[in-house]
What does this fold into?
Amino acid sequence: MESLVDDPNTSYFETATSRWISDHAPTGILVTDTSLTIRYCNKWVVKQTGKKEDDIVGHRLLSVFPEIEMRGLAHYYRAALKGESHVLSFRLHKYLLQMPVNRGAPLVDQMQQSCRIAPLLDGEIVTGTITIIEDVTERTARERELRSQLGERERLLASELEARRLAEENSRLKDEFLATVSHEIRAPLNAIRGWTLILRGGSVDKETFDHALDTIDRNVVSQSQVIEDLLDISRMVTGQMKLEFRPVDLCESIESALDDLSPAAVTKEIRLIKTISPAASIVSGDGDRIRQILWNLISNAIKFTPAKGTVEVILHGDEDFAEVTVRDNGSGIPPEFQPFVFDRFRQADGGMKRRHGGLGLGLSIVKSLVEMHGGTVSVESGGEGAGTAFSVRIPRLLGRRDDEISEMADSFSNSAQPLKMLNCRIMIVDDDDDSREMLRILLSTRNAEVLAAGSAWEALAHFETFNPDIVISDLGMPEMDGYDLIRQIRTSLSKELSNVPAIALTGYVSADEQKRVKASGFDAHLSKPLDQTILVQTISDLLGGISR
It folds into this structure.
């Protein structure tokens, strides 16, 4: 078979090829001589640059396309004249010749080009240069879109992984929290049950007997605190936590908290130090909640301070805020945990091996309550073993003279003294035998005449003959509950009997429940387990301190 070289039609193929390259090639071609005068360009170059062929061919390359030199690319042509070839990537150079984008590609105003600048050779002699220009605008747009899609996919994947990590972390915290709740509830019950069985055996001396009672009482208080913390968190999350603002003496609140917690400090031989500035002591707030804030901070300091350590409470302030700082020389807070110290259900030593009890709610409650008072709380710690200082700032009660503030503080102290003896008739209504008997004995020791009824029906049957000065009723009872009872008292009895003051007792202490209690006709609402001092004070307040 003859080769194309010997084929007489070879000139036809060369001509056809040359014509196709000139008229139809999808790339641009520029040819120069050694003086960089353009000797040839195909129609792609003419079309894409918008220049006439006569304005290109026969003219100096750098005169026709000055942007080559302006953009620092002329040295590639000098290198080509020396026999070197170079590829210009669009990623680095974007384009060689200024050519508008034909198809409105986003984010670019010039055709994106990939170029090859090479020497034009005759054997081994360089006779000029040749430039091949490829339009890669669409390709770069597709690549950009693909990178964007890949980036979005990676972002979504990272987001999904983070969501999964958070879900796993929340699940772990939930499981850890539920285990902690179970422990914090079961441990006091175990102690209460165990000491009750020991006492029931009857063969204990007085010292053991007193120790048993102290242990039972301490564990009841502990369990009550767990329940109160859970309820407080629930109220805060649902927006049902309500504060009753009035002047509050921080000196008195600090003294009260220290008195309550001093037994725990004595047990660990911890020294309690207080530094008080009375001038900064009166603030505007809810007295019970402010005592709760201080109690939680001081209790927390005692818990995390080793035996024979020191806990210091400092009260000072400026013109606008009173500041209470509780500082200890205890175990401190690890730096990595400090950002989470006020988070709910978080404990630095969480898990089965934790050294300290509690639910990890106290500091979260403190932060929420302080912020509800318009204040701030902060923490400082040098790390593990370096102690901790919590500082609470609460707005002061402004616009009063120091002598007025002093009189207010005195009046608070005087009004807090409970009436020791009741000297009145009290009707107790509770279907729980143990609770009813406990209340009967408690109030009888306060010189009250007590009638204890096991149901609302029994209470109504003896109401007129007993003629009580005050009624204390449980809410949750079968057949006729406390709400039905107070409704019967207010609507079905004589005017004199129907106006009797009434106190509701319940383990349900939500804000809605308290509103319902007041709306139904009760004068006061107390939660279980009862604080005896608060119960006696409430009875005294409702009777006006006057016995019949």
User: Anything to note?
Assistant: DSSP finds 18 helices and 17 strands in the chain. The chain has four domains: 13-135, 158-238, 246-415, 425-543. The mean pLDDT is 80. The longest helix spans residues 137-201.
